[in-house]
Design goal:
about 90 residues, mainly alpha, flat
């Protein structure tokens, strides 16, 4: 009985873990990949816990398919110097 009431609460807090790694990542590419993981986990929670398939699909299409990939392209176009290479 207790497991049926704890699992939905654990699922709702599941996107917090990849969101923390998004903020804590030192490499911008890794931050974008963790942001994509955050969106996927949030879409999975909406689909599995709340049965919101359309909203879950919109999150995957709009946020991952457009915004996160746009961020990834912008970050890859910006010349980022590596501190170790700048010293040499």
């Amino acid at each position: 009985m207790i497991t049926t009431s704890i699992i939905p609460f654990m699922a709702v807090y599941a996107p917090i873990v990849p969101a923390y790694f998004t903020v804590a990542a030192r490499n911008p590419i890794h931050a974008i990949l963790w942001l994509i993981a955050t969106f996927l986990v949030a879409a999975g929670v909406l689909l599995s816990q709340f049965k919101l398939g359309f909203i879950s699909a919109l999150i995957v299409i709009v946020y991952i398919g457009a915004i996160a990939i746009l961020f990834l392209f912008i970050i890859m176009m910006i010349p980022i110097r590596d501190e170790k290479r700048a010293i040499d």
